[in-house]
């Protein structure tokens, strides 16, 4: 992988990490405020997709999640 590709990959990982934090915050907010269960499930599913993406990019391993 050349340095430009690595830079793009690193930027993508950084963006996904930020999205993961936001998804976790959303789940906490939705759960704490007794929001619609469908919204909570959607947020959890989104978080799962983000974690899978990070794993495939080599940013995290599954045991750390």
Notes on the protein architecture:
There is one protein chain. 77% of the residues lie in helices and 0% in strands. The chain has 2 helices and no strands. It has helices at residues 3-32, 37-56.
Order of helices and strands: HH
Helix-strand category: mainly alpha
**Which blocks of ≥5 consecutive residues have pLDDT under 50?**
none
Q: Whole-Å distance between the termini?
A: 26 Å
Tell me the radius of gyration. Answer: 14 Å
Secondary structure tally, helices: 2
Average residue pLDDT: 91
Shape: elongated
Largest sheet: none
Q: Total strand count, please?
A: 0
Q: Tell me the β content.
A: under 5%
Bin the helical content: over 70%
Which features does this protein show?
Phage protein, elongated, 65 residues, 2 helices, mainly alpha
